[in-house]
Amino acid sequence: MEEKVELSELERPLRGNKKPARPPNMFERIIQPCLAEIVGTTFFVFIGCVSVIENVPAAGRVQPALVHGLAVAVMVACMAEISGSHFNPPFTIAIYLCGGMQLTMVIPYLVSQLIGGVLGAGMSKLMTSSENYLNASGAAFDILKSDDQLKGALCGEIFMTCLVTMVVLLGAVNEKSKSPMVPFMVGCTVIINILAGGDVSGTCLNPARALGPAVMAGYWSYHWVYWIGPLSGGILAAGLVRVFLGDEKIRLIMK
């Protein structure tokens, strides 16, 4: 039955003519997905940084939470069929570990995401006033002021990234639980994470989101937390799916 479905997909005519759909070429397989990761990450980081820089004090965490979550949902929905809409290094690594992409595309995706992070932060710097930009440290994560905060912040980044990455894996990679609602699910998870943990770590969950403003604002204090935490959380989520929650193809035990 599966072979017949695949054959019918290959024989399906292109819109507007009767020619069979051709397999994707090199541009569509390699270059276009990387460009989509750059563009998607750029606009996600840009919108996220502006929401922090121009945050109305009375709004507190609500404004950045809604903006980051809705931006993720929109960009994921728009570009899912081009690149998979990762826009986040922990997502890419976790998706690879769960068999959702080829190893040859991992490094290009990671590089593309980091480039997008820097470009997005640069766009936010051009758009916002110098005063607001300096007051917000360019939307870099400046909430950590002492070593006493490290444990909570690092744990927060690990646990919250684990949660959102698990939503990505179960909603987009795991056959048993795949859902067309995954853009909404991921966006909502980002919102609730920021609302819950914004005052603990700033809720980065994404090294590309941390790198861009750090480069543009020159703010590097405790920057490593926003790499170690999210990457560890992504790997933890991949482990949970591979060992316990994945379908028969993904799960490593109890086949």
Structure overview:
This protein is mostly helical and 255 residues long. It has one domain (27-245): Up-down Bundle (Glycerol uptake facilitator protein), CATH 1.20.1080.10. The chain is 66% helix and 0% strand. The protein has helices at residues 2-11, 26-53, 62-83, 89-97, 106-127, 130-135, 150-173, 182-197, 207-217, 225-245. The longest helix is centred in the first third of the chain and has 28 residues, at 26-53. It is globular and about 55 Å long. It starts with a helix and ends in a 10-residue tail after the last helix. Mean pLDDT is 92; it is low at 1-16.
Top keywords for this entry?
255 residues; mainly alpha; 10 helices; disordered N terminus; MIP; water channel activity; transmembrane
Largest sheet: none
- State the end-to-end distance: 22 Å
Mean pLDDT: 92
The helix/strand series, from N terminus to C terminus, equals: HHHHHHHHHH
Helix proportion: 55-70%
Radius of gyration: 19 Å
Class based on secondary structure composition and strand pairing:
mainly alpha
**What is the name of the CATH topology?**
Glycerol uptake facilitator protein
Query: What is the 3D form?
Result: globular
Supply the CATH superfamily name: Glycerol uptake facilitator protein
At a glance:
The protein is an all-alpha fold. The protein is built from ten helices and no strands.
